[in-house]
Amino acid sequence: MQSLVSQFVQSVLDMPGKFIDIAMADPLSAVLILVGAVLVGAASAVFGYLTLGAVVSLVIRPGSGPSPPREAQ
């Protein structure tokens, strides 16, 4: 198990160098990597913003969930 974790950490550390090698091979590759990074970054920012808003909403107003339906008269 320790070997698997160390291999994962090593591959994460090697990844930026491999991305740079691929980006330098062809101008189109560099553009595609840049567009992919922007799309992933934007999606992560939106998800983070929504998650942060939900957590803040729970902390500030913990009892502000949907109210039970009113009884019919």
Number of helices: 2
Uncertain regions: pLDDT < 50 for 5+ in a row? none
Distance between the termini: 64 Å
Largest sheet: none
Assembly status:
single chain
**What structural class do you assign from the helix and strand content?**
mainly alpha
| Strand segment count | 0
| Run of helices and strands | HH
Helical content class: over 70%
- What fraction of residues sit in β-strands? under 5%
Shape: elongated
Task: Report Rg.
Answer: 23 Å
Overall pLDDT metric: 88
Description:
The mean pLDDT is 88. The chain contains two helices and no strands. The termini are far apart. With 73 residues, the chain is mostly helical.
Key words describing this protein structure:
73 residues; mainly alpha; 79% helix; membrane
Describe the structure concisely:
With 73 residues, this protein is mostly helical. Helices cover 79% and strands 0% of the residues.
Write the layout of secondary structure elements.
Elements: H1 2-25, H2 27-60
Helix pairs in contact: 1-2
